[in-house]
Design brief:
It is a single chain. The protein is α+β, with helices and mostly antiparallel strands and 165 residues long. The protein has a single domain, classed as Aminopeptidase (3-Layer(aba) Sandwich), CATH 3.40.630.30. It contains 5 helices and 7 strands; from the N terminus they run E-H-H-H-E-E-E-H-E-H-E-E. A 7-stranded mixed sheet has the order 1-2-3-4-5-7-6. The longest helix is centred in the middle third of the chain and has 15 residues. It is globular.
Length: 165
């Protein structure tokens, strides 16, 4: 039986300068169990370093989820050149998976997108993470197309989008 988070215990906040190492750790912990299924380049691109995260903070919004004092998840939203928001680096630590953390992070990102009058969210996910695709589909995302392995580090996946009301 999975243990749920205590009511009111989960806090979502925007990352701030100095949070780069925390975000890097969250991403690495979340994806480490899947390392063998990733190509080396795919895993390296997925598990951004603190330096890359610091650079992203200049143009992106990065949220961190906290269960009490413990950081347990993160997601990044980047403005898209074609309009809308590109979602990347959704990550929840293994100990917090299945407890609604990913849902709360997605809710925070979508709320912010609505507040900023964005009309579209989109993302790419690999076939390595079927749970991620299910979460996005549950939240109104639809598969736009399958992506060929040649497009991203020899790994196939799907491009998904959600049109916001």
């Amino acid at each position: 039986m999975k243990q749920e988070l205590s009511e009111g215990q989960l806090e979502i906040r925007l990352a701030q300068p100095g949070d780069e190492d925390t975000v890097e750790r969250l991403i690495r912990e979340a994806f480490e169990p899947f390392r063998a299924a990733y190509s080396p380049g795919g895993f390296a691109d997925t598990t951004a370093t603190a330096e890359v995260i610091r650079e992203r903070m200049e143009t992106a919004k990065i949220w961190i989820a906290f269960d009490g004092d413990e950081a347990v998840g993160t997601v990044t939203a980047l403005a898209d050149e074609g309009g809308g928001i590109y979602i990347r680096s959704m990550a929840v630590t293994p100990s917090a998976q299945g407890k609604g953390v990913g849902q709360k992070l997605l809710d925070a990102l979508e709320h912010d997108a609505h507040h900023c009058d964005e009309k579209r969210l989109h993302l790419y996910t690999t076939f390595v993470l079927p749970g991620a695709q299910r979460l996005y589909e549950k939240n109104g995302f639809r598969v736009v197309r399958e992506t060929a392995p040649e497009e991203w580090h020899d790994m196939g996946g799907v491009e998904m989008e959600k049109i916001l009301d």
